[in-house]
Design goal:
Helices cover 53% and strands 9% of the residues. It has 86 residues and is mostly helical. The protein has a domain of 35 residues.
């Protein structure tokens, strides 16, 4: 740790990107936020993912259909396959 601290002190460019003193209020706030996280799949879905699953979304008081387009180019098909592999 001492070597790391010495390196930071000697390199002003590195030093400007590192906060050496922790802010207790920020740390406490982040710990509270982390404590509230769950592994519920539905909680992590974006509004777009939810709309795609439902097949519709409400916009301006009206329900609109949500469709997913098919990729037709070779590059688009390859991209879709890579996404599916994730």
């Amino acid at each position: 740790m001492k070597d790391f601290m010495d390196d930071i002190e000697e390199d002003p460019e590195m030093r400007q990107n590192i906060m050496l003193f922790k802010n207790k209020n920020v740390v406490d706030d982040l710990e509270k936020q982390l404590a509230q996280l769950t592994l519920d799949d539905n909680q992590n879905k974006s509004p777009l993912e939810t709309a795609q699953e439902k097949g519709a979304i409400e916009v301006g008081g009206k329900e609109r259909k949500v469709v997913t387009g098919n990729r037709k180019t070779k590059q688009g098909v390859m991209s879709k396959q890579q996404e599916a592999e994730r």
